[in-house]
Amino acid sequence: MTSGRLARGESWSFASFESCNEVRYEVDNGEVLVVLLDRLRLLDEPHDPLAARMGGMAVFGTVVLIGPRLHSFVQLLLQDTARKSLAPHQPPVPAGATHVQNVRAAVSPLTPSNPLLTSSSSSSGAIVRVAGTTTEATYEYMRALLLPLENLVGVRCFGENR
Question: Has the keyword Chaperone been applied to this entry (predicted)?
Answer without folding.
Answer: yes
